[in-house]
Structures
1.
Amino acid sequence: MKEIIIILCLVLFLGCKGTASTSAQLSEIRRNLSYLASDNLLGRQTGSIGLEKAAVYIEEVFKDHNIEPYFETYRDSFHLNDLVGYNLVGYIEGNDPTLKDEFVILGAHYDHIGQGSEVNSDVIANGANDDASGTVAVLEWAKFFSKTKQTKRSILFTLFDAEEMGLKGSEHLARRLKAENLNLYTMINIEMIGVPRAKTQIMAYITGFNKSNIADKLNSYAGQDIIGIFPQEKQFQLFMRSDNYPFFNEFNIPAHAISTFDFSNFDYYHHVDDEVDKMNFGHMTSFINTMIPALEGMINAPTQEIRLTDE
């Protein structure tokens, strides 16, 4: 009887500990997104003071969690006429003597449009879903892999500037890394994961579903179906409208975007009401954590199991 009581107490303790850990992570996700999508950042338009504040904040997260810069600094700078843009690139070197020479990129864009049409005297387009949510996901994965150090391949955590100006930041970085002969295995871009899909739908969808076997492999690594297809994807040309596309073009490798926004579950795309209070932080936390074993499987697979298809 005494042994049963001890076991029950242990189970309850571990369960409470896990709940507390998840609660702490949810709070951290809320805190980071609340800053990135705050009025203080003025909508994070390329070249603005608000975007500079966002960049400094992201750099501090990288530094605090021992994420190294891939280049001399975290910033990959580029010019757009009279504007200077900068992608932010963090780096974790793989620990396998051979596989560390292969790279995986996990990315999202941290810029937004600045201002939108006025609603109730508000003109700041905060971009909570688009794409502070994706930025926070990439930061959470950077913190996770830095802590566990279980990465056979090397990882670049890339936060792109000037996505809203036509993928200019990702185009610049893709060309630069291609010129440096980076051995890129796969690229995943996270785009708008702040709201859940309908309960009848799979958790998330991937653009360019038929261009590679990545969805099947990620689901296999995760041990459950978390990535599916969005039937209207081709109609909206989503594969070509996100920061995965320049890497697909430059490297001819599996490069896709993953999203939970499907045009039916959020009314505030490029709208001043894309605010923090519209985000579902329970969903975001669940998505981020559910994706971890899928990412681990991709990063640590002994061979390159993810491949382009003929389509």
2.
Amino acid sequence: MSASDVVDSHLVGGKNVLLVDQGVSFGGALVVLVSIVKNLKSGYNPTIVSAIDGDISKWIDIGGDFEVLSRKPAFTYVNRFSAYEKIRKIRSRVVRKLSVYMLSIYEFFVNLRYVLDLCEIIKKRKIDVVHINNSVYVLMAAAITGTPCVWHIHGVVEEKRSFLHRLLEPSVSCYLAISNYVSDSAAKHGYPKGKLVTVWNPVGDQFIEEGCTLSNESRNSDLRERYELAGNAFLIAVFGRIIEWKGQLEAVKAFAEAKLGDEVYLVLVGGSTEGFGDAYLEEIKKQAKLLGVEKNIIWAGFVRDVHEVYKDVDLVLHSSIEPEPFGLVVTEAMASGVPIIASKLGAPEELVDDGVTGLLVDPRNSTEFSTAIQKVVMDAAFRKLITQSAKISVKENFLPKQYADRMCEIYDQAISPEK
């Protein structure tokens, strides 16, 4: 559907919000946007623009009374990553710099069509505020149309803002960081501290029942039946895209080192979906075989209704080997009444009270990681204690309605800033 075909469905009354995500595959940023629009107060009319081709409902239950439009830049971050990998191999420093410069110019011009499409959507839908997920091109559209925006920082900031970003900054009402770790990284790279606001991500609605977190008494047995496992099999799960920084390889190594027995299984939930190839996936399989645990690894692949898997597992590992901007897996496990062992790298240190609501480890240290796994698997009383404390923490800090209410405050401030 072209921009000119967009239906004027949200033009009467209320405040019109456009939420734009450039992720080309399913991920946490899109999950958060969907959570926001599902829980906005009455009087707010949201529209999501996603870069995923086709109907995103195959990835996530969108529900609600709002539209999701599909728009993708001609040159995405995946294209940029691939191009930079080639540029890094150029020996001449001068040629490398020139190549980066030329690439930036090329990217700018080929993505202008995307910017103009967004401008048309903003004008046609009479958008009052634009919610941006890390995209200078969406910021361009907001600036061109004179629409205030909220810039949502979903990742750790590792470089200074571009000249174009700094030039268009007056259109940004606030920079919304998903953790203090992300906020600190942004401040170190020149983001204006006066505009930085930290709001932790919420757990998804599917993890909430009547305002409370899921009961861990409702364990199902789908995984055990599907893979013909014994009823008393202990299932340890790792959730996330199969990419190197998520640390599935480190989880397999720690699982092997823990030597937990034949009735303990490691379930890898997620697919390789970002266009970076399957080399990492094959490396994990190779190591599992070398370590003698391949028979105890379950490859579940991508699961749409992932909350159903949480109901069926006994322990969740969060194994990121690079600083994690947030870690939805951490709070999802806590909400589901499943013990969590999380990477101490990045934001999880803010989310988990070590030894109280879960355990924190460095996944790169296989001994530390495997020892923590052994402790949780072997100590049922400890599992019960930390899951009870974790569920209390979720109710206090991570409920989606609380989060959406905070977003409404932020949108209102962007639309009508205090004098």
3.
Amino acid sequence: MDTAWFAKRPVTEVRPGDHGWLAYSGAEERDRVIGTFIEAGLRHEEKVVYVTDTPPERLPGMALRTSLDLCAYTGSGQLRVIPTQEACRGRNGAFEPGRLLDTLGREVDGTFGQGFRAARLTIDHSWVLAGRDGADLGPMLGCEQGFGDAVSPSTMAMAICQVSRRACSPGQLAALRATHEVLIEVDPEFDDGVLRIVRTFQPHGLRLAGELDAVRHARFTEELGRVARAHRRIHLDFAELGFIDLGGLTLLAEHATRLGGGRALVLDHLPPDVESVIEMVGWHRLPGLVRGRRRAPHAPGGGRP
């Protein structure tokens, strides 16, 4: 099921048939995505199956969701936490892809008979890949392709396959990603149908899509201030932004001016006309405002400051 295109989906919009991919940069990103995925399933009478050696109360994102009675969910079978030895390890402890596919298949097959509306499946493959740079990914790729072939046509199963970006090489990550049609990300910090602001984790910052006008300045300033509190360099990705007014650019310049101490606001994928305005008024000389990655020449969009 290799594919050259990907749908990018906020985690609360995952739906049956999605074979999702999450390459997380750290615990915060994983907690926000997987914790939301689990909670949504439990609150909507869906079965949640997590292959992991972590106990239920320590699953990603659960520490902040104290209103969930995990003991009740595990007792009813709605939350199934299956140890890796039982789900996908052989006698020697090695990963066995066929065993994993059989395990997940049985869990999905029993969903309706157990009274649940759908099945949510997730596993973190980091333990399989850690320290295996350059190793043969054939068995893992075959497993993911088989998993995708089972999930994609399903009307009741949805899955997120996880891996830490630190567990393997960029080439391995790209190969594994290509076996998934859906890339899962955190829910937007803000989305009113005109402007969408999404938190990014590698690099740390925000991605803006749509239009940033005067009506939305205050919310953008709020989100920028929140994400800038604990990091020295904040990346703003403008690849999907179609319009930013002069007031929005002024906000960026004012924020950069206040940073000091070697901190910086990095502007990635700026539309050429927006870059021209920044240079025309001299804001590119501000020490706290840094031009980051360039927008590809064929990229769509562009500002109208």
